[in-house]
């Protein structure tokens, strides 16, 4: 299988790359921090896997289209696209939020995911097969206080997944939306702009999901028989029911 992953420099994306690093698979890993991509590539290639890397900011339409051209030339198609790149910035009431943060979240989580999908889906249409796996969130199912714009971006991912599934139905392209709850990655460090103490507090008293849990879930969805498509899957740690209901230990 040929697997293209956005946001592979940390967290879910990195764990997904590691999970798919199996004989017979080829990976194309992307993200902005190219030095991390190079390190990951070196590690995975030691397992005998062919790994390509591309520095990619999903907000940059030109970069996305250049990547798609390269993928088309080198691979001729894509079996699995994992639209994982995304972020939250800040936790603020709607009357106090930083509009620059709003722009970044919308540009990355919504527009970036759309650009990548728009660039890659035609290859899948051409081959009459493929699987697009979008990483949504429990925040895209139930909103929480001060989550406003991040939640809105993940509700958008849910809507895009639902409608892409309909649009791509004639071409036998699967679309899966995976909606994780709290997971301990660099997510909170990014959300709180490098404040490690504040980020760590999010997971105090919690056995949160691990990146590997989501990687295993993505792998499971991606390796089902051709006639089976998991449309939508919500996965939380056992101490969480949804965006709001959580029980610390
Ligand atoms: P991390 O911060 O660990 O990883 C985020 C990844 O997204 C990084 O590889 C980062 O790469 C990439 N990324 C961010 N912005 C861009 C951009 N503009 N262009 C390209 N890549 C970008 O967080 P997670 O692994 O937790 O997050 C992955 C996805 O999972 C996100 O969509 C997030 O919203 C979602 N999610 C996370 C949950 C959690 O609790 N952790 C729960 C539910 C969903 P780089 O900075 O190198 O570009
Ligand atoms: C990440 C989970 O609850 O921090 O999407 O929004 S949450």
Describe the SSE topology:
Blueprint: E1 2-5, H1 11-20, E2 26-31, H2 34-45, E3 50-55, H3 61-74, E4 80-83, H4 99-127, E5 130-135, H5 148-167, E6 173-180, H6 187-191, H7 196-201, H8 211-222, E7 232-235
Parallel strand pairs: 1-2, 1-4, 2-3, 4-5, 5-6, 6-7
Helix pairs in contact: 1-8, 3-4, 4-5
This protein binds NADPH dihydro-nicotinamide-adenine-dinucleotide phosphate and 2-hydroxyethylsulfonic acid.
2-hydroxyethylsulfonic acid is lined by residues 137-139, 147, 182, 243.
* Percent helix: 40-55%
Distance between termini? Answer: 41 Å
Structural domain count: 1
**What is the 3D form?**
globular
Task: Write up this protein.
There is one protein chain. The chain has a single domain, classed as 3-Layer(aba) Sandwich (Rossmann fold), CATH 3.40.50.720. 43% of the residues lie in helices and 15% in strands. It has helices at residues 11-20, 34-45, 61-74, 99-127, 148-167, 187-191, 196-201, 211-222, and strands at residues 2-5, 26-31, 50-55, 80-83, 130-135, 173-180, 232-235. A seven-stranded parallel β-sheet has the order 3-2-1-4-5-6-7, with helices on both faces. The longest helix is centred in the middle third of the chain and has 29 residues, at 99-127. It is globular. The relative contact order is 0.14. Bound molecules: NADPH dihydro-nicotinamide-adenine-dinucleotide phosphate (NDP) and 2-hydroxyethylsulfonic acid. NADPH dihydro-nicotinamide-adenine-dinucleotide phosphate is lined by residues 6-13, 31-33, 56-59, 84-87, 108, 112, 135, 137, 180, 182-183, 185-187, 190.
């Amino acid at each position: 299988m040929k697997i293209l992953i956005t946001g592979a420099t940390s967290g879910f994306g990195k764990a997904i790359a590691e999970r798919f690093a199996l004989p017979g698979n080829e990976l194309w890993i992307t993200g902005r921090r190219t030095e991390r991509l190079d390190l990951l590539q070196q590690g995975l290639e030691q397992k005998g896997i062919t790994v390509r890397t591309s520095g990619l900011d999903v907000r940059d339409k030109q970069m996305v289209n250049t990547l798609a051209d390269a993928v088309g030339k080198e691979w001729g198609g894509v079996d699995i696209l994992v639209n994982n790149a995304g972020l939250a910035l800040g936790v603020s009431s709607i009357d106090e939020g930083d509009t620059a943060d709003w722009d970044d979240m919308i540009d990355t989580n919504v527009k970036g995911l759309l650009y990548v999908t728009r660039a890659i889906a035609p290859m899948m249409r051409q081959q009459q097969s493929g699987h697009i796996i979008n990483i949504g969130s429990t925040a895209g199912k139930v909103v929480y206080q001060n989550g406003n714009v991040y939640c809105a971006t993940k509700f958008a991912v849910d809507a895009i997944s639902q409608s892409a599934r309909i649009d791509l139905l004639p071409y036998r392209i699967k679309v899966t939306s995976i909606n994780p709850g709290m997971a301990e990655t660099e997510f909170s460090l990014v959300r709180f702009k490098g404040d490690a103490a504040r980020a760590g507090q999010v997971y105090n008293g919690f056995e949160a999901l691990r990146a590997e849990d989501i990687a295993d879930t993505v792998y499971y969805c991606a390796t089902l028989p051709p006639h089976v498509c998991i449309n939508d899957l919500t996965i939380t740690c056992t101490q969480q029911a949804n965006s709001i209901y959580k029980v610390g230990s």
